[in-house]
Amino acid sequence: xxxxxxxxxxxxxxxxxxxxxxxxxxxxxxxxxxxxxxxxxxxxxxxxxxxxxxxxxxxxxxxxxxxxxxxxxxxxxxxxxxxxxxxxxxxxxxxxxxxxxxxxxxxxxxxxxxxxxxxxxxxxxxxxxxxxxxxxxxxxxxxxxxxxxxx
Length: 151
Fold this sequence. Notes:
The protein is α+β, with helices and mostly antiparallel strands. The chain is 26% helix and 47% strand.
């Protein structure tokens, strides 16, 4: 941990899913579906999916500090985009502050999802490559959720 440090990073991840944008968007908007692909199996997840709404995802390693990911929805255009701001805390320490845009772009009969995230990583609690890898794993889990629902 490096006290008083800030590392800025931006990344963009893209995935193509074989379902319509409305189906991909719904997997973000439905609390039960989102918990299946976004939350840890033993974690706690709450979702109020509306402009001004909040999302809280709590979990963490069995013998480590708990992590809390909290988001506030700034803009939602059904089947087109989601814009939210987030914080990640590790125990009582604020680790990251983020601004994220998720776009759902029709591509043939499917959807190209484009996620762009801008981050401020605080005091060495998290690293940009950890966040990018974790976000990619969530998007892969989303694909599994869409398959589970039946393409």
